[in-house]
Specification:
Elements: H1 12-39, H2 45-63, E1 71-76, H3 95-98, E2 104-106, E3 113-115, H4 119-122, E4 128-134, H5 141-150, H6 163-170, E5 182-185, E6 205-206, H7 228-241, H8 252-269, H9 271-274, H10 283-288, H11 299-312, E7 317-321, H12 332-356, E8 363-368, E9 372-373, E10 389-390, E11 394-400, E12 408-409, E13 411-412, E14 419-421, H13 426-437, H14 458-461
Parallel strand pairs: 1-7, 1-8, 4-12, 5-6, 5-7
Antiparallel strand pairs: 2-3, 4-11, 8-11, 9-10, 13-14
Helix pairs in contact: 11-12
Length: 473
Amino acid sequence: MSKKHNPDKVTRREALRRGALGAASVVAAGSLSSRASAEHVKISPEELAKQKAARDAAAIEKAKSKGKIKSVIQIFLWGGMSHNDTWDPKPKSGWDYMGDYAKVQPTNVDGIQLCNWFPNLAKQADKFSLIRSMTHGVFGHETAAYLMQTGHKAGGRLAYPSVGAIFAWSKRDEYKGLLPPYIVMLRAAGRFSEEGFLGPAYKPFATGGDPAAERFEVQGIINRGINDNRQRARKDLVDKANIMGYGLADVPEMAAAEEAKERAYGLILGKGREVFELGNEPTELRNRYGLKPDGKRHTFGQECLAARRMVEAGVPYITISFPGGWDTHGNHFATMNRQCPQLDQGLAALLGDLSDKGLLDSTLVWCTGEFGRTPKIAQEPPWNGGRHHYGHVNSVLVAGGGLKGGHVVGASDETGAWVAERPVYPADLLGSFYLLAGIDAAAQLPHPLGFEAHVLDTEKEGMKSAGMLEEIM
């Protein structure tokens, strides 16, 4: 008889394994950081400031002619996906860097190549752009995820909110939909508290469930074992038993409670719930979002389809936390062989679907992990072909939301180890998103203790910035 897995129980073997992984990352980070000053692209502070000013001015001017981002879909490849093996291939770098996976995939845009894992995405290259010079130099999961999703350094006295919480906060008076304004599928990666000091009202709603199942059982909305008729019967019983509400409709507190109740049931039984009923989509379209080798739909692809339906419902911010993760210290290529086709199918279908429905211009899609992975493969035991954490350079895919497709911003060197030209820092990336969404990056945020805090504050925190992404605006 097999034993049930307890995720909270860590065996001695697992503890040793985790310790070894952590040690490998620290060693890799230390050895690489010691070489950074000698080998990293040289830009003086004065030149960096000059470039930033010019790019920011150009971006602000170009944004004036664009519509505002209405919704964002963030595909978070938690654990850190290898840039060499995906969107920044280096086929000439040799076996030590690419192993047996040096083949490249041409795209429908001349001059842009992807790794061979992405034949479907290659047909959509005119719809997205690649940032191949993303950099921050952080090698820890939690600190890198925080930096990539807030634009602020970790370790300060303030726990800043994520970009998703900022979007929810900025749309608080504008968005009136039944669904929460910030939704994550299927669960938060748990690297940091996405709501930060903005508090529980801006915490992402985690759906749970599995959209590839026959019924997408979204927690708190579509419950296992309770059908619609039973749920309606419960509502009727509550209404009949609500003697406190009789004659008190004019009392503000009672009116607010009644409105909240009706919104909740509208979510459970009405149009809010319908968003998650993927069975209403054509079978051919659902399949286009991706099938596993056994012919069954995979979870990631159906998450992408659910995200498109949330965009149609007006949800401001949707995060897809990729199921399975990309922390490939060992079994790297086996994991890539399994997960890259799913990423390829789901993301390509999402971009095509949004475009076909006229939603891509007003919807920003961005896809990245917290960092990349070491360009040189760790062939020695116990890794046997793994890649470790790497914060000096990685790639980000961006599409829609007023950004041009079919372009590449920046470049890494011949092995994908360092930024070769046009560094892009987290503040540059998020600042571009905020600009196109009409969010003031200098806006004061409401801290519960009255501390001064802004959406982005690169200068006071010493955050590097080379300027917003005017090249693709």
